[in-house]
Amino acid sequence: MRLSIFLLLTLLFLSGCSFGKEQAPDLHGYVLEEKDSQIIVVSKNANDYSAQGGVKQFYDAILLDRVPEHVEVGQEVKVWYKGEIEESYPACGSIKHIEVVENEQPSEASLHPQEVVQQALEKINIEYMVAITDVLYNEETESWTVTYRPISLFNDDKERLQTIHIPDP
């Protein structure tokens, strides 16, 4: 009897531990800024809230604390939040878990995708914020294309996807 109770409790504990890792991340996007042990992450995919009277292309953005040292600007990340999220824009919250997406550097390229995003962020002239949606290497032109969307304070769907080209030295 004691053994079966012990096994049951152990199974419940183990299933609870693995559940958190199987949940979808709260946000999947790029780290755009780092300052004072905080980062801003903006989603790479838009949500469509037009059916509820909102905008058609809304990109989540959040200012996060509790940032591990290995997380840097330009990285693609998946984030799980801890506790309450302050509903502002960008939102504010804490990291429960963060996973850096390992984007492979093409064998023909000199730059890593993270470096490309960093260079693109230095060159993009925006008023407020930007959502990086794609980073692609073109072997023929030996350059990278970063696709992004400027985000205005009012997020009124007027801004369209834009691209910037980064040469690969």
Q: How would you portray this structure in words?
A:
This protein has a single domain (23-167), classed as OB fold (Dihydrolipoamide Acetyltransferase, E2P), CATH 2.40.50. The protein is built from two helices and eight strands; from the N terminus they run αβββββαβββ. The chain has helices spanning 2-22, 113-123; strands spanning 27-35, 38-43, 61-65, 76-86, 91-100, 129-138, 143-151, 162-167. The chain starts with a helix and ends with a strand.
What kind of sheet is the major sheet?
5 strands, mixed, barrel
DSSP helical segment count: 2
Classification by helices and strands:
alpha+beta
Count of DSSP strands: 8
Q: Which terms would index this structure?
A:
five-stranded mixed β-barrel; disordered N terminus; OB fold (Dihydrolipoamide Acetyltransferase, E2P); 39% strand; 8 strands; 2 helices; three-stranded antiparallel beta sheet; 19% helix; 169 residues
Summed up, what is this model?
The protein has helices spanning 2-22, 113-123; strands at 27-35, 38-43, 61-65, 76-86, 91-100, 129-138, 143-151, 162-167.
Describe how the helices and strands are arranged.
Layout: H1 2-22, E1 27-35, E2 38-43, E3 61-65, E4 76-86, E5 91-100, H2 113-123, E6 129-138, E7 143-151, E8 162-167
Parallel strand pairs: 3-5
Antiparallel strand pairs: 1-2, 1-4, 2-3, 4-5, 6-7, 7-8
